[in-house]
Amino acid sequence: MTALVEVRNLVKTYGEGEAETRVLKGLDLDLETGELAALLGPSGSGKSTLLTILGTLMRPTSGSHRMLGEDLTTASDRDLTEFRNRHIGFVFQFHHLLPDFTALENVIFPAAVEAGRETREARERGRELLVRVGLEHRMDYLATKLSGGQKQRVAIARALMNQPELVLADEPTGNLDRESAMQVMDLIGEINGREKTTFLISTHDEKIAEICRRQICVVDGRAEMGRERA
Ligand SMILES: Nc1ncnc2c1ncn2[C@@H]1O[C@H](COP(=O)(O)OP(=O)(O)OP(=O)(O)O)[C@@H](O)[C@H]1O
């Protein structure tokens, strides 16, 4: 069986000459369908860099990156954008919701971009997702009127809008109190269990990492695999 994501000998350097920083130094990583994995590592070890490359938002300096059997290192920018919209969802620490739009409008935004317009089906799926994340009573609230935990739940619903196989989350609970963080993790766990969506979650929080079935640590530019838990 081929992995959902297959990364080999990934290298990423920033800058040139004396200012060159080699962040990823030949990293190998496989992610299977349905995994719930934490991405750990000291500050500056390259977690965000790796997530940005896996999300096709930045190209590696060298190495191979495949997802769903497609070679993404040689794909055109246009093909990458299409691939990203269809197959990858993102959740960030600072949710990046559009403040002047409602929760529902924020959720259906990716589908509207993909389709070039807002469809009735998209509105329906957006509503369903907001119900699933427990925000049926906040659909028409402006994003600015939501609490931090609620905003993050909207961000998760938005990430799921186009039914991605992979969701990349960069410190999704970093800005939340313990209770909201656990609610967000419960939600991610439920979606992962039910829909087999693969999640890769970068975190500094050991408790969050423990909830994940697998821990992957970026150390000295390479990935060290943690033990898989049943
Ligand atoms: N655009 C850039 N240009 C130059 N250097 C960069 C750039 N982005 C990141 N870096 C450097 O690459 C290294 C890895 O950064 P990255 O943000 O990937 O680490 P991280 O593990 O996510 O850190 P943190 O846990 O603090 O968020 C750091 O030394 C950083 O300074």
Automatic annotation (TrEMBL):
<keyword id="KW-0472">Membrane</keyword>
<dbReference type="GO" id="GO:0005886">
    <property type="term" value="C:plasma membrane"/>
</dbReference>
<keyword id="KW-0547">Nucleotide-binding</keyword>
<dbReference type="InterPro" id="IPR015854">
    <property type="entry name" value="ABC_transpr_LolD-like"/>
</dbReference>
<dbReference type="GO" id="GO:0016887">
    <property type="term" value="F:ATP hydrolysis activity"/>
</dbReference>
<dbReference type="GO" id="GO:0005524">
    <property type="term" value="F:ATP binding"/>
</dbReference>
<dbReference type="GO" id="GO:0098796">
    <property type="term" value="C:membrane protein complex"/>
</dbReference>
<dbReference type="InterPro" id="IPR003439">
    <property type="entry name" value="ABC_transporter-like_ATP-bd"/>
</dbReference>
<protein>
    <submittedName>
        <fullName>ABC transporter ATP-binding protein</fullName>
    </submittedName>
</protein>
<comment type="similarity">
    <text>Belongs to the ABC transporter superfamily. Macrolide exporter (TC 3.A.1.122) family.</text>
</comment>
<keyword id="KW-0997">Cell inner membrane</keyword>
<dbReference type="InterPro" id="IPR017911">
    <property type="entry name" value="MacB-like_ATP-bd"/>
</dbReference>
<keyword id="KW-1003">Cell membrane</keyword>
<dbReference type="Pfam" id="PF00005">
    <property type="entry name" value="ABC_tran"/>
</dbReference>
<dbReference type="InterPro" id="IPR027417">
    <property type="entry name" value="P-loop_NTPase"/>
</dbReference>
<dbReference type="GO" id="GO:0022857">
    <property type="term" value="F:transmembrane transporter activity"/>
</dbReference>
<keyword id="KW-0813">Transport</keyword>
<dbReference type="InterPro" id="IPR003593">
    <property type="entry name" value="AAA+_ATPase"/>
</dbReference>
<dbReference type="InterPro" id="IPR017871">
    <property type="entry name" value="ABC_transporter-like_CS"/>
</dbReference>
<keyword id="KW-0067">ATP-binding</keyword>
<feature type="domain" description="ABC transporter">
    <location>
        <begin position="5"/>
        <end position="230"/>
    </location>
</feature>
<keyword id="KW-1278">Translocase</keyword>
